[in-house]
C-alpha cells in the first residue's frame, strides 16, 4: 500500500478554563451523562487550570515521530486531528484535501478495541471525510497494539521502577494493580467480532506487563473513571474499592499501572495520582503509580513499525501475546451502544 500522509487521531482536551464546559459538551453530547458527573469532572480539570495534559502529549508524540519516521525510511507529512477539541479532525481532513493528500495512514491514541477506543474513532474519521466531501483523502487506521513490545515493555519497565520506590515488596504483602478506563458492560459485550475484545485485550496486556515486571507477584485487573448513570452497569471493580479489599486481605504495598492508557491523561493524574493515592493513604497502603509509555523511544518506534507493516506485508508483525490483531476491523465490529431514548 502507498501512503502520502500520516495522521494522528486523538481525543482532544481543553487548553484553558473557558474550554472546559464546551469540551465536556462535545464529549458527552447525546450520551446521557448525569449533570452531577459533568460538574465533578469539570472540577477535576479546574485543578489543573482547565488544561488537559493530552494535547501537549500529542504534540510531543508528533515531534518525536517527525524525527523517527524519516529515520525508519518513512517520509510522510504529519497531520493531527481530535474528536473533541482543536485541532478538530474535520478541519485537519479538509487541510489534507487542500494539500493534495490522497491516502493517509492513521494512528489512534488507544491500543484497544471497543466502541470508545476504536469504533468511535472510525466513525469520527468517516464523519470528517463525509464533511469534507468526495475529494476527501482515503484514511486507513493502524491495528490495535495491546501486545506490541513497544507498548508492553515501557509499561513493564515502569512497573519495575515503581516497585523500586516501595519500602517493601514481599510477595505475600505486595500486589500489582492494573487499571483501564471502565466502559459499560454492554459496550464490552459487543466489543470486537466475538465480544469482550476490550476486557480481553486489557487483561492480556496486564498479564504480559505483570509477567515481565515481576513474575513472583500476583496481579489484578480493575477499572477506573466510571461515568454514566448509576443504574447502567459498567466494568467493575473500581480501583478504589479494590484497594480496600486488598488492604482487608493484608496487602501492604501496591503498584498501580494504568495499562489502559498510552500517556498520563487527566484520568491518570486525577483519578489515580489523586483519588486512588488518597484511598491508599487512608488505608495505610504503600502506593506507587507506574508511568505510561508517552514518548518512550520504544513506543515511538512501535508507531513506525506499525506503519511499516502496512506499507510492506512482508515486514514482521511484532506481538508478545496470543489475542489476535488484524489490519481492518470487520464492519460494525464495535457498534455504538444504544442510548437512552434512542
Ligand atoms: C475506553 C475509554 C478511553 C480509552 C480509549 C481512548 O483513549 O480513547 C477513554 C479515554 C479518554 N476519556 C477522556 C475524557 C472523558 N471521557 C468521558 C466519558 C467516557 N469515557 C469512556 C470511555 C473511554 N474514555 C466512556 C464510555 C465515557 C462515557 C461517555 C461516552 O460514552 O462517551 C468524559 C465525560 C465525563 C465523564 O463522565 O468522565 C471525559 C471528559 C480522555 C481525555 C482525558 C484528558 O483530558 O486528558 C481520554 C483520553
Ligand atoms: Fe473517557
From TrEMBL:
PROSITE patterns: FERROCHELATASE. Keywords: Cytoplasm, Heme biosynthesis, Iron, Lyase, Metal-binding, Porphyrin biosynthesis. Fe(2+) binds at residues 181, 267. It is found in: Cytoplasm. Fe-coproporphyrin III binds at residues 52, 121. Pathway: Porphyrin-containing compound metabolism; protoheme biosynthesis. One of its GO terms (biological process) is heme biosynthetic process. HAMAP family: Ferrochelatase (MF_00323). Involved in coproporphyrin-dependent heme b biosynthesis. Catalyzes the insertion of ferrous iron into coproporphyrin III to form Fe-coproporphyrin III. This is Coproporphyrin III ferrochelatase. It comes from Planosporangium flavigriseum.
Amino acid at each position: 500500500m502507498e501512503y502520502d500522509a500520516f495522521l494522528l487521531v486523538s481525543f482532544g482536551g481543553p487548553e484553558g478554563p473557558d474550554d472546559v464546559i464546551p469540551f465536556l459538551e462535545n464529549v458527552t453530547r447525546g450520551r446521557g451523562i448525569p449533570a452531577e458527573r459533568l460538574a465533578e469532572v469539570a472540577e477535576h480539570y479546574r485543578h489543573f487550570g482547565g488544561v488537559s495534559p493530552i494535547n501537549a502529549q500529542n504534540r510531543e508524540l508528533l515531534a518525536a515521530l517527525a524525527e523517527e519516521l524519516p529515520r525508519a525510511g518513512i517520509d510522510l507529512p504529519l497531520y493531527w486531528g481530535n474528536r473533541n477539541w482543536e485541532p478538530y479532525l474535520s478541519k485537519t481532513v479538509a487541510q489534507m484535501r487542500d494539500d493534495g493528500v490522497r491516502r493517509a495512514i492513521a494512528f489512534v491514541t488507544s491500543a484497544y478495541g471497543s466502541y470508545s477506543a476504536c469504533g468511535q474513532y472510525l466513525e469520527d474519521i468517516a464523519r470528517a471525510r463525509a464533511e469534507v466531501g468526495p475529494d476527501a483523502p482515503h484514511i486507513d487506521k493502524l491495528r490495535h497494539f495491546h501486545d506490541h513490545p513497544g507498548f508492553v515493555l515501557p509499561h513493564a519497565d515502569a512497573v519495575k521502577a515503581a516497585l523500586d520506590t516501595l519500602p517493601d515488596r514481599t510477595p505475600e504483602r505486595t500486589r500489582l494493580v492494573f487499571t483501564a478506563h471502565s466502559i459499560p458492560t454492554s459496550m464490552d459485550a459487543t466489543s470486537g467480532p466475538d465480544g469482550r475484545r476490550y476486557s480481553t485485550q486489557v487483561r492480556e496486556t496486564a498479564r504480559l506487563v505483570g509477567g515481565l515486571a515481576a513474575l513472583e507477584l500476583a496481579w489484578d485487573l480493575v477499572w477506573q473513571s466510571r461515568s454514566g448513570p448509576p443504574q447502567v452497569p459498567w466494568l467493575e471493580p473500581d480501583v478504589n474499592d479494590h484497594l480496600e479489599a486488598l488492604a482487608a486481605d493484608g496487602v501492604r504495598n501496591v503498584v498501580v499501572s494504568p495499562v489502559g492508557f498510552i500517556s498520563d491523561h487527566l484520568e491518570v493524574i486525577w483519578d489515580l495520582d489523586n483519588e486512588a493515592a488518597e484511598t491508599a493513604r487512608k488505608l495505610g497502603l504503600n502506593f506507587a503509580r507506574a508511568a505510561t509509555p508517552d514518548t518512550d523511544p520504544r513506543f515511538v518506534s512501535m508507531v513506525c513499525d506499525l506503519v511499516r507493516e502496512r506499507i510492506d506485508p512482508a515486514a514482521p508483525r511484532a506481538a508478545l501475546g496470543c489475542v489476535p490483531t488484524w489490519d481492518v476491523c470487520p464492519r460494525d465490529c464495535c457498534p455504538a451502544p444504544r442510548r437512552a431514548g434512542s
